[in-house]
């Protein structure tokens, strides 16, 4: 059975770059790897509804923290069987965002921390009720909020298809989300967490070494 590894972090932290580096390192070590990114825009109707809401195209839906979280959760539930299949066929399944994203962003919207009601609720919904596969490892790509915001803005300038949504444009939300992420990492929520400094050179080979050490 393969290992389920999740990359988490603020918008603009560099998760896609980290994922690409990890995939290259794993393949160089002779391991098989496949990856998914959430939300699954263009694949899942629930993800597409999320996108519409985040850009203000579904009235006041985005105002509902729980409503948005249910859409995110249904998107992940729709991918659960594929993730399980991939875990049976590959050494590593790498996810760009997963359950912890909803826990961090939604708790931050409600001004709660990692011990709050929402974090408990999202675990009950997605893990206990929906039965989503539990990660073996979270990688928290940590960068200062200001750095993440500047990267997201530059990405938006360079690629019109990656315009920032209402979450990405809210600096206060991003700061609170970063604090919740740190809290989730400190308590090893759902699975072990490893913090990666997004401003330093990353040793891709060493990040996943504990997963394959007897």
TrEMBL record:
Thymidylate kinase-like domain: which residues?
Answer: 7-160
Which EC number(s) are documented for this chain?
2.7.4.9
**Which reaction equations make up its catalytic activity?**
dTMP + ATP = dTDP + ADP
GO molecular function ontology, one term from the record = dTMP kinase activity
Key words of the record: ATP-binding, Kinase, Nucleotide biosynthesis, Nucleotide-binding, Transferase
One Pfam family, short name please?
Thymidylate_kin
Top EC group: transferase
* Cellular component, GO annotation: cytosol
Q: Tell me, which GO biological process terms does this entry list? A: dTDP biosynthetic process; dTTP biosynthetic process; dUDP biosynthetic process
Relate the protein's function as given in its record.
Phosphorylation of dTMP to form dTDP in both de novo and salvage pathways of dTTP synthesis.
Its family remark reads:
Belongs to the thymidylate kinase family.
Q: What is this protein called?
A: Thymidylate kinase
Gene label: tmk
